[in-house]
Input
Amino acid sequence: MKRPPNLEGRAGANAVASKGRLRANTWLLARRFSQLSILTLFLIGPWFDIWPVRGNLSSSRVIDVLPLTDPYVLIQSVFAGHSPESTAITGALIVLLFYLLVGGRVYCSWVCPVNMVTDAAHWLRERTGISGASQLSRTTRYWLLGATFILASVTGVIAWETVNPVSMLHRGLIFGMGMSWLVVAAVFLLDFLVSRRGWCSHLCPVGAFYSLLGFHSIVRVRADARESCDDCMDCFMVCPEQRVIRPSLKGADRGIGPVITSPNCTNCGRCIDVCAKNVFRFGSRFRNYANDAKSREHSNPSSGVEVL
Amino acid sequence: MHTRSPAKQRSAPNPASRRRFLLDSARTAGGVALFSLGIGLYARQSTSQPPQALRPPGALDENSFTGACIRCGLCVRDCPYDTLKLATLDEPIATGTPYFTARDVPCEMCDDIPCVVACPTGALDHGLDNIDDARMGLAVLIDEENCLNFQGLRCDVCYRICPVIDEAITLELRANTRSGKHALFIPTVHSDRCTGCGKCERACVLEKAAIKVLPLQLAKGELGHHYRWGWKEKDRAGSSLVAPDRRHRFNLPEGQRYDYAHEGLIFDGIGNDPDASGNGSPFGDDPLSTLNRGIREAK
Output
């Protein structure tokens, strides 16, 4: 049956009813705050001539000291035949280390400006009742990721950067957009009309790269209270990477622990928000036992966040 | 410990699902390949730098630059004169890379070259420590028909504004054939000193500049690698390289020589010409005697 496009029927309504609006949107608001703050830090410079950060997400200098570089674009540059200076390498290592710990795709849901575009497109898609799963394969992004490296070495150009909507949007907002908004609009229309979560969850090679960093990352969403799941499907409805929840939420019988271990989980925390039964919480990847009581032995389930 | 997902525990997948997997993979790979072809061709084209777009000082050659620049804009930020811009999608230069347009805002040639220092990857070569060694392009006086100096006027603005005045641009004198009596002061660019900063193009007083800074690969010719300038090689070697230097011998009558430096024809026997004044020259001191001699011989 088709879900009617009204507020009451939408995912998260139960959580709003039981936890209140704020607690049912905590992580969403935190994420928007994070995305907008990072963008603002970059914009304060050009707007007010105070420079907490210079550059853009490809490479930046924080308070004129700390270099940060996107490891993905730097690796492409190496594939294109360039040997980077030490500043860029240092910056890339710092970024690499950060995402290895907190989860690669934290970049996608907490930093990347395109996430706000595709979330808006998805919201509109739901509101207008456009249904249907994506026809694209979720592995497409990995094929594309490989292709970007091959393209760099064949053409000697960082080819992906000539069309990359992620860097184009961020760079455009800070340095001037020109016609680059067309590419962003294309991503919006793709997610709105063509394919459910088409860009971020199927095509984007930047996200694919960061997912590879997140294979062993420590910060994870855990379905610690999975025995209280009432099968409302709300978490499944809001999750941009729908496959990642099921094993840990429903895998108790098959000996699967409660930690969402898939590197494609973006740690967006939306499932935590919309669950009226407080099944999910942020935690670490450790103590991932099929026996739930043992998993929770040393953590405090009421806090929502486990102190690392 | 982690438990493997059930899909990985499954042994011997059935042929139908394997075929579907292969088909799906092939479909995805095909789509990605097609998409990549488009990006690749577009990226290749983006390396053809348009002539009005100049790279910052120290930029590697265009092909290396598009592989080395990660489009972060730190050079743009650290340029104190807001000279540099990052290219957007619609501009005919690799998206996101820094450039400047000399006619709008030229490079001010800062001594500390902050744009190069800012570059994290070395797309702007950190080896460049003297801005006079920068080669952002080369000024070319491209429109002689409209350049005021070529018409015999003393505009000289490009010459006066040049930060490397009298070295990168000099004024070379040439006869003004229109007036018949004046000189043309021709602004002449010397590629061994011109940094391509673009101040001359910015300053040109015409509606559209007669002198333009072009990317080096457009502006410069290149000598055949086997070419040698004979006179330079001779100078370097101290003598001729092809054959020992031998004085050319003219077929002159007895008693006459030829001086190569400046004197010309020399008569060794003094007084062999009855009308000569005795200084060895065929021409007497009195011009009339030369003339009379001609008339006498005609008879």
